[in-house]
Fold this protein.
Amino acid sequence: MATIARDEVLFETLLRLGDDSLILGQRLGEWCGHAPSVEVDLSLANMGLDLIGQATHFLGRAGEAEGRGRDGDALAFHRDVLDFRNCWLVEQPNGDFAQTMARQFLFSTWQEMLFGHLEGSSDDFIASVAAKAVKEVRYHAELSAEWVIRLGDGTEESRRRMTDGLDWHWRFVPELFEMDEVAMAAAERGIGADPRAFREDYDRHIRSVLAEATLEAPKDQRPILGGRRGHHSEHLGHLIAVMQHLPRTYPDATW
């Protein structure tokens, strides 16, 4: 771990942070004009914009740390799928509204806790972005938790849909707490955070919300890992093809 250069650790850490937000922001954007109500449509759009804003900061700084002349746009729109470092959870299809809220709840609860720890990062840029973003993500976590409760403790159909959404995404949660060589090096240098430090708080909060929703936590499943190393589901390739269509079709265009 000590052999990994600091700039490489910083670059990879920023990519992971940026890619998580970028991909989930893109997923939420797919709801525009299709949400259950105008109010929900606007909420999802605003959450997506929050995440894209985070991605813009993290990926822009990642390009500087890499030192190869790539900016945030180049990293977002001109990388292939195997070069993305987001977790599997954020790339999962939206499914129905309950599935989207289940995904948001599981991820935003984690992201809020992560950013809270990253406020103490030894990298001033990460610390400053995290301090601002944690306020945005707190709203994402609260809103999605409210929907988990509302749908879980609602009609028979809404309960079934929320249960199915949680069951689908549960296997992707362990990856959020995985510590590989890069993550360990980032934590040791104080650049990143070790999410294992808040795993108990995360589990406790998740189960508290599920209890209020009168839902049981899904049974543990075989964890799906590898997103941090570029191993992804087929869903990410389809998402990136749409997201990168215009920049790749018109590479010399300026906006």
Observations:
- The chain has a mean pLDDT of 96.
- Residues 221 and 246 are 38 Å apart (CA to CA).
